[in-house]
Amino acid sequence: MNELKHKEITEKIIGAAFEVHNFLGNGFQEVIYQRALAWEMSQKNLNYQREIEQQIFYKELTEPIGTRRADFVVEKKVLVELKAVKELEDVHLTQALNYLKVYKLEIGLLINFGGKSMTFKRLILTQ
Predict the structure, then answer these.
(1) Which element (helix H / strand E) includes 53?
(2) Which residue stretches of 1-127 are H helix?
(3) Tens digit of pLDDT for each residue in 54-69?
(4) Model pTM?
(5) For the chain, what are the domain ranges?
(6) Under a CB-based contact definition with an 8 Å cutoff, are residues 86 and 114 in contact?
(7) What residues have CB less than 8 Å from 97, skipping those under 6 apart?
(8) 3-state DSSP helix/strand/coil percent for the chain, to nearest 5?
(9) What percent of the chain has pLDDT over 90?
(10) Is 27-124 in CATH node 2.60.40.10?
(11) Which residues contact 62 (CB under 8 A, 6 or more apart)?
(12) Cα-only R_g, the chain
């Protein structure tokens, strides 16, 4: 069987996210979950950067056409995008996959705290 890439990191992040949801439940703004998840990931000795701005370039243009901010980049390997919506939609998945492309990362997690249960999708960007 194929071993999942960055499995130890993603398992710790998912565990931290479950801790947050078990404590807070649903109904809060995304930023509340983001701050709580930052604390939980620190408890699990995960290094992360929060909301780092990434420039977006188009074709041969040398000037960026805009910027984006992912919620977290963990251990410089895993992108984490949070949502606090009733249920994830295709647009959320597309956004997270675009972030993987822009940040030049292969693995990501899309985590939703807005439903009765916390849900997540593991994302893999194939080149």
Answers:
(1) strand 53-56
(2) 7-24, 30-43, 90-103
(3) 888 888 888 989 888 8
(4) 0.90
(5) 27-124
(6) yes
(7) 108, 123, 125
(8) 35, 25, 40
(9) 75
(10) no
(11) none
(12) 15
